[in-house]
Amino acid sequence: MKAFQHDIILASKSPRRSELLSNSGFEFIIKTKEVEEDYPSDMDIYAVPEFLANKKANASLSLIEGEQILITADTVVIFEDQIFGKPTNEQDAFEMLKSLSSNKHTVVTGVSVRSHKKSLSFSDESSVFIANLTDQEIRYYVQKYQPYDKAGSYAIQEWIGLCKIEKIIGSYSNIMGLPMQRLYPILQSF
User: Fold this and answer.
1) How far apart are CA 107 and CA 129, in angstroms?
2) pTM score, two decimals?
């Protein structure tokens, strides 16, 4: 059953976003444009993901044909008033995970939904509590899962999520990169 009557463009290379959209009953195509993920240095860090989602949407408007709907998103991990983006190397990933160990952090995903007639954006927040991670566990995770394309150096659906997440407050799909509980009714309204 097709849950949606319009064609959807997902402007994201994230396999997790594709999985979430597909598992929610939507058919879509993937088209992307390269966009520099920079933002004003004085911007409230909780506003950054929605700003970047809109920036990606503005750069990708030419991908929309006819009645198609464009979805763009950006996810960040925030810990102690700092954005933890994607790690640049193994050491960076190790240090991020060492910081997140035995602590609570916030995952914020910004989403933009566009058509030629309508535009809407929002962000969603989830709190994640990670248990203690030993140096050996962090090295194991980084070497086995290579989390270089993941904000905060981890994916909730992998080993850390299965074995080391003590509690989540908010949406699980938001932590994966697309808050479907908010996106689903928005897509229906388009």
Assistant:
1) 11
2) 0.92
